[in-house]
Amino acid sequence: MRAPDRILRIAGGWRGDAVVAVGLVAVSLVVLAAQGLLHGANNLLETGCGIGACGCIIVRRAHPQLAAVAAGVCLAVAGVAGSSAGMPGSLVLVPVFLLAYSLGAGAGFGHSVLALLLLGAGLQLAVGAQFNPFVVVVTIGPWAVGLVVRSRRHLAGQLAVRGRELEAERELFAAEAVRYERARIARELHDIVAHCVSVMVIQASAGQRLTATEPSLAAEAFDSIGEAARQAEAEIGRLVELLDHDPQPRGADGVRLIGELVARAGAAGLAVSCRFTGSAEGLPAQASDAAYRVVQESLTNAFKHAPGAPVDVVITGGTGQVEIGVANGPPAGPLSGLERAGTGRGLAGMRERVAACGGEVSAGPAEGGGWQVLARLPRHPDRAQASSVP
Predict the structure, then answer these.
(1) pLDDT band at residue 251 under the 50/70/90 scheme
(2) Is 78 found in the same domain as 204?
(3) Which of 78, 131, 142 is nearest to 107 (CA)?
(4) Which candidate, 108, 95, 94, 91, places its Cα nearest to that of 146?
C-alpha cells in the first residue's frame, strides 16, 4: 500500500482520532504548564475534565452518542468547577466540533438530537452561564453536516447494492441468452439433419432392396440420397451464415418452398399431397420460415413413424392468419427403423418457433389413427399478442 493511502486509512479510523486526542492533550498541558495552572485541586479537576473530553474523540466513530454524552458531562463538570474547561483558548471547540459531526453522521436522528442537547448544554456551562449563540453554531452546524454525509452514505450504499443486483441480473441474462442460443442452434440442427437423414436412411433401405430386382429404381433411390445430402449441405451452410450474424433468411419464400419440400418427400417415397387455399402473401419472414419448419418436421415424423401412410398437407390463408395442417394415416408399411431415433426436440422446437411468431400449434393423434399437426400463424404478430392481453 502506498504511503498516502496508508496515511488516509489511518486518518479515517480510530487511530487518527487517537492522534488528534493526544495532540490536543499535549498542547493543552504545555500551554497550561507554561501559564503555571497545573497546581491546585480546582485547576487539576478542570484539566482532567478537559483531558476526558479530548479522550472521547477516540470512540466517537464506534459510539457517537456515548462519546458526546460523556464529553458533555466532562465539560459541564469543568464549567461548574471553573470556567476554562481545563483547556486553553478555543481548543475546547475541537472535540465538540468532531463529536457533533459524529452524532449526525453515525447515530439515529432522535437519539443524536438528545445527545447533541447534552453536549451543547455542557459546552454552555463550560464557556459561561450566560447564553452564547456561538455554542449553537458550533454544535448544530457540524451535526447538520454529519446528517448530510450520513444520507449520502446511505444513498451510496443503496446504489452499491442496486449495482450488485444489476450485475447479478446481467450475469443471469447472459447465461439465459447463451442457453437460448444453444437451444436455437440445437433446434436448427435437428430440423436440418433429422429430415435429410430420415430421407437418406429410407432411400438407402429401398435402394438396397431394389438393387437386385430393379436396378433403375435403385439408382433413383440413390439419386434421392444425393439430393437429400445436397439439401442438408445447403441448409447447414445457411445455419453457418446465421451463426456468423449474417443470415440469409428464407423470408416470405418459406411458404412457397413448402411445395418443393413436399415434392422431395414424394420423390423419396412418401405418399404426400399438398393443397393451397387462399393466399399466404403478407406473412412475416419469421412466420413464413416457421411454416416451412412445421411442414418439414411433420413430414420427418411421417417418415419415421408412419411408413406407407398417406400424408395430406393443407395451407389455408385467411384474413388475419395462415393455417398449416399436416395429417397422416396409421402406418401401412414395414417399419423404417427410425421410430426410436428421435430425441423429442422436434415437437418442442416446432412449438417454440410458432410461439415466437405469436401463433399457436397443436399436435396429437387423429381420429381413426395416425397423427395430425395444426399451426396458426398470424400475419400481424403484434396485433395478435395485443389482443390476447386481457
Answers:
(1) very low
(2) no
(3) 142
(4) 108
What are the cell numbers at 385? 399478442
| C-alpha to C-alpha distance for 17 and 179, rounded to whole angstroms | 54
Q: Are residues 198 and 102 in the same domain?
A: no
Comparing CA positions, the residue from 221, 217, 186, 215 lying closest to residue 201 is 221
- Report the CATH number that the domain containing residue 315 is assigned in CATH: 3.30.565.10
Cell of 131: 447564553
Give the structural domain span for 74.
Answer: 3-131
Q: CA 134 to CA 69: how far, in whole Å?
A: 19
- CA-angle at 52, arms to 49 and 56, nearest 5°: 140
Write the DSSP assignment of 25-43 as a string of letters: HHHHHHHHHHTT-S-SHHH
CA distances from 47 to 20, 57, 72 (A): 17, 16, 15
Domain end marker among 131, 150, 165: 131
Q: Domain boundary at 97, 114, 131, which?
A: 131
* Entry pTM: 0.50
Instruction: Please indicate, yes or no, if residue 152 is contained in any of the structural domains.
Output: no
Considering its fold, how many domains does the chain have in total? 2
Q: What is the pLDDT of residues 52-108, one digit of tens each?
A: 888 898 988 888 999 999 998 988 888 777 644 455 556 778 889 899 999 988 877
C-alpha cell at 386: 395485443
Q: Which residues of 308-329 are buried (b: 16+ CB within 10 A; e: fewer)?
A: bbebbbebbbeeebbbbbbbbb
112 and 203 housed in the same domain: no
